[in-house]
Amino acid sequence: MNKQVKPINQTNATELRYENGAVILRSYATTVAAYIPGLGWMATTTKYSTTTSKHISQWRKRNGYPLVAQVPQAEIDNWEQKLDGLKMGA
Description:
Strand order of the largest sheet: 1-2-3-4-5-6
Largest sheet: 6 strands, mixed
Oligomer: single chain
Helix content: 25-40%
Shape: globular
Structural class: alpha+beta
Number of strands: 6
């Protein structure tokens, strides 16, 4: 599977889109939110900064992702590791 990395219209925010439809949001160098097909949208419960909170909120609204779950950072990290085994898509 392929994935695509693209900076988004927010300073220090990057979106990773996977061929299987999964999408990861990184704020600075930290993965803070994800959309996982079949599970929905999730965001970390860890509070980093006001800017990171804005990245999550704006990214979610821009993509139309409703809040499905707030999960521990470890769960977000686990999804990122699973997805890193896949290739990125368009």
